[in-house]
Design a protein that fits this description.
The protein is of the alpha/beta class. The protein is built from 19 helices and 14 strands. The strands form three sheets. The protein has a six-stranded parallel beta sheet, with helices on both faces. Strands 11-10-9-12-13-14 form a six-stranded parallel beta sheet. The structure holds uridine-5'-diphosphate-glucuronic acid. Uridine-5'-diphosphate-glucuronic acid binds at residues 131, 161-165, 221, 224, 228, 262-264, 266, 268-271, 273-274, 335-336.
Length: 461
């Protein structure tokens, strides 16, 4: 909702219009601020200016279009325009994993500061939102101070973002908490103004130093990754002990000290954040001389990658011991549902590995097809779930889109060659699928009975 006070509000720029930046820009415009989104990609800026979201994110495109229509939201490729426009500059550029290393690649951040700094000739707060190794903000503050013409009126702050893809709008408008790493009372006051609405709605606001703010984000993602790998480690134990990790997870989650979130066992975590963030954390801890403090993250990463290998093994087992000459239908390639993001996607990794082992692999995803096709042109791309599994010896559910959860096992059963399915996300009602004659396996769950004429592993007698 637009605020009646919009005319008096500070003007905001958002530098970098990926998931984070676009969501932040559209949500701040929705809160009544005048916002200028800036990106170095002219194609991206043109699309956004037309009201087209260059990626899939539920609920964000209407907000983008409303912002444009209100006149409060606009886009540009010009840093000079950004410097002239903004009282607060949010830096939302990417910090991917560095090629061939665990550490983060900070080149987009430094390029952004280097381009903006010399143009900042009026009072402003430059606020980083990207996920960074602790110490980056202090480094950038020094760099900025050396570049700006009026050093005493330009300050750097760090305000990490905790939004999840697929929930970007809700997480931005109603954040669990707002963390403001600041160097002065002035910096804190400005960020309190920007977040006045969520603060008034009772969202916690924590003012802190730069380093703590950076670490909150990295530690939060490390904790989430650890929790996911914990339950997936339990899945490994369950498989060996013939126990059921889904019931285990539910029972653990009822303990309020543990909680249910990030405790869904399955194929593990992927995406553009958790995997690279835990690796960058390890690299940074080593630089700081405290490598042992986070060495457990190596195991967290290892458990996560082992789930992918286990998925391939289960699929091979159901394919009759070898993928040669077999057809595998894959449901889902995005790293999670409600996203078209395939960065470090466990699903796509498994699909490509199985193709590499000799199977003919046909995939379908409701949103991520074009990205997946570009990354793995060797796979076959189907137009629907039914087409993807047509003639399949084994079907794999790898991303738990609602469409796949709701799929009719009878209808899909008519399309496949053999009713074999591995539920990589523990998302299906196994009893329902087994009732339809499917041989249904899942990560971390006990072996099923093997009733059903078409439900035997391919090649089984
Ligand atoms: C994650 C964090 O959840 C956000 O708080 C953070 O802001 C964001 O990274 C970021 O650093 O920008 P996101 O990558 O969008 O958000 O995805 P999540 O919903 O956390 O899921 C990450 C991965 O873990 C997915 O592959 C998902 O399938 C998997 N996952 C998640 C599980 O396997 N089990 C779970 O219980 C939860």
């Amino acid at each position: 909702m637009a605020s009646p006070h919009s005319a008096t509000r500070r003007r905001i720029t958002v530098l970098g219009t990926g998931y984070l930046g676009t969501a932040h820009a559209a949500c701040l415009a929705d809160l009544g601020f005048e916002v200028l989104g800036v990106d170095v990609s002219p194609a991206r800026i043109e699309a956004l200016t037309r009201g087209e979201l260059p990626f899939y994110e539920p609920g964000l495109e209407p907000l983008l279009q409303a912002g444009l229509a209100s006149g409060r939201l606009s886009f540009s490729t010009s840093y000079a325009a950004a410097a002239a426009f903004g009282d607060v500059h949010f830096v939302c550029v990417g910090t991917p994993q560095r090629e061939g290393a665990y550490a983060a690649d900070l080149s987009q951040l430094t390029a952004c500061i280097d381009a903006l700094g010399p143009l900042l000739d009026r009072p402003c707060l430059v606020t980083g939102k990207s996920t960074v190794p602790v110490g980056t903000a202090a480094m950038l503050a020094g760099r900025l101070a050396a570049l700006v013409p009026t050093a005493d009126t330009c300050e750097l702050a760090w305000n990490p973002e905790f939004l999840r893809e697929g929930h970007a709008v809700q997480d931005t408008l109603r954040p669990d908490r707002i963390v403001a790493g600041v160097q002065s009372g002035r910096g804190e006051a400005i960020l309190r103004e920007v977040y006045a609405d969520p603060i008034a709605a009772g969202r916690p606001f924590l003012a802190t130093d730069l380093a703590t703010a950076e670490l909150v984000k990295v530690a939060a993602n490390a904790f989430l990754a650890t929790k996911i790998s914990f339950i997936n480690a339990m899945a490994e134990v369950c498989e060996a002990a013939h126990a059921d990790v889904m019931t285990l997870s539910e029972a653990l989650g009822h303990d309020p000290r543990i909680g249910r979130a990030a405790l869904r066992p399955g194929l593990g975590f992927g995406g553009g954040c958790l995997p690279k963030d835990i690796r960058a954390f390890m690299a940074r801890a080593e630089e700081l001389g405290v490598e042992p403090a986070v060495s457990f993250l190596r195991e967290v990463d290892g458990i996560n990658m082992r789930r992918r290998a286990r998925m391939v093994d289960l699929a091979r087992e159901l394919a009759g011991g070898s993928f040669e000459g077999r057809t595998v239908g894959v449901l889902g390639v995005a790293f999670k549902p409600d996203s078209d993001d395939i960065r470090d996607s466990p699903a796509l990794d498994v699909a490509a590995t199985i193709h590499g082992l000799g199977a003919s692999v046909s995939v379908y995803d409701p949103a991520a097809m074009s990205h997946a096709r570009r990354a793995h042109p060797e796979l076959a791309f189907a137009c629907s779930a039914t087409e993807a599994v047509t003639g399949a010896d084994v079907t794999l559910l790898l991303t738990e889109w609602q469409e796949f959860r709701d799929a009719d096992p009878e209808k899909l059963g008519e399309a496949v060659a053999r009713r074999n399915i591995v539920d990589g996300r523990n998302a299906l009602d196994a009893a329902r699928w087994r009732a339809a004659g499917w041989h249904c396996r899942a990560l971390g769950r006990p072996l099923p009975d093997r009733r059903g004429a078409k439900g035997r592993p391919a090649g089984a007698a």
